[in-house]
């Protein structure tokens, strides 16, 4: 996918630049963009490392497990198809919590394990079950509370207050997740399998 | 509404306080784990540097050639009618497909308009409440061999659209 996007962006840019006679600008942009990617990464090295260091403490202290347990009643309501005490719940909880905390490296493995368990409960191995749809929709509704990389980007481009977007971001994330759950519940009813 | 901005200023120190206190009560080696985690973070950043170079160059070419401005001019009648920031349209669609390509477009907006402009603030909030739907779906469903995804895509698009609308409303209320 990225093959076409990346290639397409460059080819379109070169063609348009050729037509409009802006090859000098394009050449400068190639050099400058490559340079600013590196300066950006230097800022990110500091900010992201600080954050992942902090999150490592949370992880080692067992914050993911303890929050997962608190989440169980909500998960049983969201996934009525899954048998009580099934291991799928644990993977789903770990995926959600890791996403909420912004721990991508912990979220994806747990998410793939959750899909595996949901597949073992699935009646039709080609077609997504209702639990899978619900899990994927919540997962893709954006759960992360603090998007540290956006804050690092803002700081690199000299924002006067890089973190001012956290509060509105929280509300917007909440809005998208609530909308996702409602949509999943409605669509589940509407498209119930025979 | 300004309470939201107050929360913004509190979240990071509060996260520090809570996690340090939590780690302390669980008798975790605080400093040592911080250092190990920070080292992991450095690896992550170094790993994304090549994709960042690639995509920032691609967006830079698009911007310098004038292609992004033509695209904006082309779609602006529609976006003005809908009340949506025109410059954010390519980013909005790219966001669903690829996180590195959308980061490239986000940084282009920061570069051109600044992160504290109306559009800069809107895209910051919008990026915080949306996901790379297409990419995530293909990875997760492919891993278990599901081909019929039923209502996953419409559901995820509704969620992301809701996030974008809330982001737009909040930007207007707080920063317009």
Walk me through the topology.
The complex is a heterodimer of chains A (194) and B (176).
Chain A: H1 2-20, H2 23-60, H3 63-78, H4 87-101, H5 104-121, H6 130-139, H7 148-156, H8 166-190
Helix pairs in contact in A: 2-7, 3-4, 4-5, 6-8
Chain B: H1 2-25, H2 30-65, H3 67-82, H4 89-97, H5 99-113, H6 118-128, H7 133-144, H8 152-175
Helix pairs in contact in B: 2-5, 4-5, 5-6, 6-8
Brief summary:
Chain A has helices spanning 2-20, 23-60, 63-78, 87-101, 104-121, 130-139, 148-156, 166-190.
| Whole-angstrom Rg of chain A | 21 Å
Strand % of chain B is under 5%
Number of helices of chain A: 8
Overall structural class of chain A, as computed from helix and strand content, comes to mainly alpha
- Sheet bearing the most strands of chain A, described? none
Indicate the overall shape of chain A.
globular
From N to C, what is the helix and strand string of chain B? Answer: HHHHHHHH
Tally of individual domains of chain A? 2
Q: Using CB atoms under 8 Å apart, which protein chain pair has the greatest interface?
A: A-B, 103 and 108 residues
What integer value in Å does the Rg of chain B equal? 20 Å
What is the count of DSSP helices of chain B, taking H or I runs of 4+ residues? 8
**Quaternary structure classification:** heterodimer
Look at the structure and give the mean pLDDT of chain A: 94
* Strand runs of chain B, count: 0
Shape of chain B: globular
pLDDT averaged over residues of chain B: 95
Descriptive account of the structure:
The complex is a heterodimer of chains A (194) and B (176). Chain A contains eight helices and no strands. Chain A is mainly alpha-helical. Chain A folds into two domains: 1-43, no CATH class; 62-190, no CATH class. With 176 residues, chain B is mostly helical. Chain B has one domain. The longest helix of chain B has 36 residues, at 30-65. The two termini of chain B are 13 Å apart.
């Amino acid at each position: 996918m990225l093959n076409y996007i990346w290639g397409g962006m460059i080819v379109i840019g070169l063609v348009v630049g050729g037509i409009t006679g802006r090859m000098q600008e394009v050449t400068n942009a190639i050099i400058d963009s490559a340079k600013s990617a590196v300066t950006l990464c230097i800022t990110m090295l500091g900010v992201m490392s600080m954050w992942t260091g902090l999150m490592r403490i949370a992880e080692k202290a067992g914050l993911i497990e303890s929050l997962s347990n608190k989440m169980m009643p909500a998960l049983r309501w969201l996934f009525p198809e899954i048998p009580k005490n099934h291991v799928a719940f644990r993977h789903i909880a770990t995926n959600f919590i890791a996403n909420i905390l912004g721990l991508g490296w912990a979220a994806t493995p747990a998410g793939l394990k959750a899909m595996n368990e949901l597949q073992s409960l699935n009646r039709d191995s080609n077609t997504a079950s209702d639990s899978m749809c619900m899990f994927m929709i919540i997962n893709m509704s954006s759960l992360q509370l603090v998007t540290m990389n956006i804050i690092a980007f803002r700081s690199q481009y000299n924002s006067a207050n890089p973190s001012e977007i956290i509060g509105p971001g929280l509300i917007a994330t909440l809005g998208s997740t609530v909308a996702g759950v409602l949509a999943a519940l409605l669509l589940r009813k509407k498209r119930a399998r025979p | 509404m300004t309470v939201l901005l107050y929360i913004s200023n509190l979240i990071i120190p509060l996260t520090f306080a809570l996690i340090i206190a939590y780690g302390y009560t669980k008798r975790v080696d605080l400093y040592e784990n911080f250092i190990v985690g920070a080292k992991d973070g450095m690896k992550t950043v170094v790993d994304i540097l090549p994709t960042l170079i690639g995509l920032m160059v691609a967006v830079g070419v698009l911007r310098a050639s004038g292609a992004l401005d033509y695209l904006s001019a082309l779609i602006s009648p529609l976006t003005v009618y809908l009340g949506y920031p025109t410059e954010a349209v390519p980013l909005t669609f790219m966001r669903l497909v690829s996180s590195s390509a959308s980061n490239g477009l986000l940084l282009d907006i920061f570069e051109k308009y600044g992160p504290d402009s109306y559009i800069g603030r809107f895209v910051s909030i919008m990026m915080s409440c949306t996901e790379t739907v297409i990419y995530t779906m293909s990875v997760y469903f492919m891993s278990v061999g599901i081909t019929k995804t039923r209502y996953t895509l419409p559901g995820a698009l509704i969620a992301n659209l809701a996030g974008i609308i809330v982001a737009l409303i909040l930007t207007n209320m707080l920063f317009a």
